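for the writeup, i need someone to sanity check this before i put it in the appendix. the sequnce is what the collaborator sent (i think, or maybe the updated version? ugh). structure was predicted straight from it, no edits. if anything looks off just tell me and ill rerun, i have time this weekend
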Amino acid sequence: MEMIFFDNVDKLGRIILTTVVVYVLIVTFTKISGKRSTSQLNNFDWIVTVMIGSLSASTILLKDIPIIEGMAAILSLYLLQFLVTKYASVSPQFSSFILSEPRIVFYQGQFLPDAMRDERLTRQEIECAMRSEGIHNFDEVEAVVFESDAKLTIIPKPSTSNDDPEAEDTVSETIAPLM
């Protein structure tokens, strides 16, 4: 019967050494690649993060993958992420292709069922986001936007004064492009 808790010292030593090297290199690569690598993730960033985690684990645990090969794969992903995000920052068409567009899912007291269905959101999830922002009344919300990073942004209604009756009909500058 094989050992369940311990195989041999050489294997354990390799795993510890590889873990330290992979950890140091990933921390270094992440620092060099910038805040984008650790920010709130959109779909594209999430995929890259999962791939880096998988490659790191494979490099640490599989003896058939030398550290240099694992690090080359991880460095390649960081480089690809940098190039894609750099190009997306200068090309709106490319950015629209790789990133999800924000979408209004609640507007002026009304849930938008088609948008909610397309984004696979429930009323409870939207209400939870409102409560998290301390909002307990639908009348207090101008809109709820399902963002590119899968977060729900609550946009409160602007406070209106009796002096400006047109203020109620004004659409927020951040919502107007989504309509």
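The chain has a mean pLDDT of 84. The longest helix spans residues 9-33.
thx in advance!!
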